[in-house]
Amino acid sequence: MTYCTGILVREGLVMIADTRTNAGIDNVSTFRKLHVWDRPGERVVSVASAGNLSLSQSVMGLLAEGMKDPHSGRIETLETVPSMFRAAQLVGLGLRQIRHELGEALEEAGVSFEVSFLLGGQIKGKPPKLYMIYSAGNFIECGMDAPFLQIGEHKYGKPILDRAVTYDIDIYDALKIGLISVDSTMRSNLGVGLPIDIIVIRRDALATQVSARIEVGDPYFQDLRNSWSEALRAAHMNIPRPPYTSDSAATKED
Amino acid sequence: MTYCTGILVREGLVMIADTRTNAGIDNVSTFRKLHVWDRPGERVVSVASAGNLSLSQSVMGLLAEGMKDPHSGRIETLETVPSMFRAAQLVGLGLRQIRHELGEALEEAGVSFEVSFLLGGQIKGKPPKLYMIYSAGNFIECGMDAPFLQIGEHKYGKPILDRAVTYDIDIYDALKIGLISVDSTMRSNLGVGLPIDIIVIRRDALATQVSARIEVGDPYFQDLRNSWSEALRAAHMNIPRPPYTSDSAATKED
Description:
Distance between the termini of chain A: 45 Å
Number of domains of chain A: 1
Number of strands of chain A: 14
Order of helices and strands of chain A: EEEEEEHEEHEEEEHHEEH
CATH class of chain A: Alpha Beta
Strand order of the largest sheet of chain A: 12-1-2-13-14
Structural class of chain A: alpha+beta
Largest sheet of chain A: 5 strands, antiparallel
Strand content of chain A: 25-35%
Oligomer: homodimer
Number of helices of chain A: 5
C-alpha cells in the first residue's frame, strides 16, 4: 500500500509520499515513490506513484529514457515537455505503453494493472499545476475548489484535507496539514509508513524549496503526531453532549 | 453504501447507522438499517447491517421468523437466544442459510455476496456485548482495547474513533464521537447520508435509553458538524509549521 498527496495552493505546491511497499504483510520494504526533475530557473517537475511497484518503476524508467511521440516522432522526457499538461500526457503515454507490453501477461498471471500517479510542478512562464493520472493513462487536473489530490490509501487522510485545505492557506500550513493527513493514514493502515518524502515547490521559484525525507524518530513529526492526537481529543470535549432521548418512554438520566 | 458503527464502553453500548442505500448514484433511497429487539427488564438486542440490502433484509426476516437450530431442532429468535454469543451465531446461521438459497443464483447474475452486521446488546445476568458478523457467517467480538466496530464505508470515520474512543469514556461522549465519525464519512462519501438512527443501551438498564432518528436539519447535529469543522481547522493552527529545509541549497524564506 502507499499514500501520496499533492496540495496546490496560491503560493505553490506540496507533494508528500510515504515509502512503504508491501507484497503481503510479510514482505514490506522501503522504496522512494516521490521523484523530482529539477532544472533550477527553468522547471521543476515531480512525480509520486501508487500501486504495483514494478509498473510504476517501469513507467518512471520510460519517462527517464524518453518516449517517442507516435504523432511527431520526437523523443520527449519530463525535462523537455513544453507544459505540465504535456507532461501528464507523457505519463499517460508511458502507462499505455507498459500496459501494451505487459497487460496480457499480467492478466494471465492474475495480477491487476493497478498503478496511478500524481504529477506536479511548474514550467517557466506557466502557472504551477497538479494532475492525477489513472492506470488507463487518462488524467484529471487539480482545481482551486478542492485543491488537493490523493493516490493510494486515500480515505483515512481525506477528512482533514477536506476541512483544512483551501487554495489561500500558507504553503507551509499545506505541508503541515498534508503531514497530519499522512499521520492519520499511517495510524490506520500499516501498509503506509515512515520514512516520508516531502517536496515544497514555491510558485515561480522554479526549483524545489524543500526536498527532505522524514525518518523514523524525526522530532517535528513526532511532536506533530502527539499534538494532533491531543488536539483531536480536546476538540470534541468542547462540543456539548447529544440531547437525544428515546422516542419511547426512557429519558436521559444525567 | 452505508456506514454503521457500534461503540462499547464501560457504561454501555452505542449503535449508529445511516439510512442511505444506493444502487448506483442515480438510485438512492432511505431504508432503516438499525433494528432493535427490546424486552424491557430482560434483554435488548440491536442489529445494524451494511452491504446488499436484499441480503440483509432476508437475514433480518429469518431472524424475525426464527430459525431451526440444525443440531437441537429448536426454533430460535433474537428474543429467545440465551446469550449474545448465541445471537451472533444465529445471525451467522441466517447468513449461511441465505447464501445456501441464493449464492449460486447471485453468482450467475454477477452479484457478489456482500453483507455484514453489527450485533450489540445485553441479556439479563450477562455483560453487554458487541459483535461484527462477516458475510460467511463468522464473527468477531469487540474488546476493550479498541472498543468499537464498524461496517460499510468505515475508513473516513476511523481516525476520530481511533483517537478519541476508550472503554472508560462517558456513554454520551461515545455517542458524540460516533456522530462525528458519521459526519466525517458523510462529508466524503455521498453514499452515506441522513437520517441517522441512533440507539443508546446503558449497562444493566436492559432497555434502550435512547432510540432516535436524526433527520436533515436536526439542530444539534448541525451544530456538531459546524463545531467540529471549526475545531479541526483551529487544532492544526496550534501546531508549529514544519521546520524542513531542502537537503540541497534552498532554505525556507519566511
